[in-house]
Design goal:
2 domains
Length: about 450
Amino acid sequence: MIIFILILSLVIRIWYVLLPTIIWWDTAMYIGIGKYMFSHGAIGLWEPFRPPLLPIILGSAWKIGIDPLIFGKIIMVISSLVLIWLVYIIGEKLGKNIGLYSAALLSLTPVFIVFSNTPLSDIPSTLFITLAFLVTLRKKYIVSGILMGLAFLTRFPQIIALLPLVLSIWILQEESWKIKVRDIFFVLIGLALVTLPFFITNYFLYTNPLYPIIEGNRVAAESVYPAHEYFYYGTGLLTQNPLLIFVLVTLGLLIYQGKRLPSWRMIRSLFLFVIIPGAYFTINPHQELRYAMMFLPFLVLLAGYGIAYITEKISWKFTSFVAVLLIIAILGSIGLYGLKTHGSRYKVSPEQYEYLTYFKDKGRQEILTSSPQSIVFSDISIVQAVSTWEFADQVYNDVRSHVSYIAINTCELVCEDPATCPHARESLLQKMKKEVQIFFKTTFGCELYILKP
């Protein structure tokens, strides 16, 4: 049955990989940073607040002649399938069929499927966290710390999972507090083995070991986000996968039965991995449903436990009927969510493709751009990537004398401040009119410019 789930997951993911979707900003940044690393700064771009592991993987693929975008998508698909397998393994430790239910839930959750075709840090970092929990169950604490370090180097906010991991060691063990402290210390040793080289490198690069994290917080604080919602992740995940409501069954069982509940220690630990990261991302002003993937494996394990309990209490025929209806609903949700996430504004039109690949045969060029996606197709050097009208207008005069080309997609630029944005937009467009226009196309309401200063 688990093989069937994995094969179905693979087929769905291959379908998503083959969809003609535009490259995400963050994906382009990871590829660009990877090229920068492996070209000694001659190609690509550098952003100090990006975690290094994914750029290293993508950059090493580019260095040996493999398309980093295709390689990244393969990594995402493999990571998602391994993550489903890990959930199955952990679930079977909870009880019979819980692993199957949990793996199926994870496999059919739309947000987990949709981002399997996009080289981003969410799925690989979640894989490391889930594997860290599994090896903690097997009492391999140094390995667990190493895996947490890898999760951190893939995506900085994932370090929040260290807290539930440490608390889980305290809950899962029945030994004395001295042994628990020793094992937690082993986790921290493993974490240090992986992260210390990163912090030492930061010291030599920036004279501050924590500079990338500080810089990341500064950029986040200066960014403009949609309205904050306290129930964003709960309602979003339930809308996508109604079967997650069975988490409440498990919660009720834990409250009612307490320590009499089978595997109560593991269940408490799983709730920690949901509550602590969930609370962190809820209070964070930047909310995206893909961030929930950090605690999604633990959420589906809790839901799988509740489903297993219910199916033991009611008839198998009724259970099968309800399951079929819910699976149909989830599959429909997958299609709708995919359409929404990779809809028209994410499709690559011929005009966009021509714009993004313009520099493919131009050799190494230095450009100012609002579309860092060009770095995926061309070995160029991006002097500055701009994402707001205000910032673009601010740096235009300073940067234009240092670049060979200016590439602007008007839909890539957003307003930082409604009061200053109209003036900045008009100012930038007037400056652009004075440059030599060598490319201009419109698509999806966007204006695509390539200018020669």
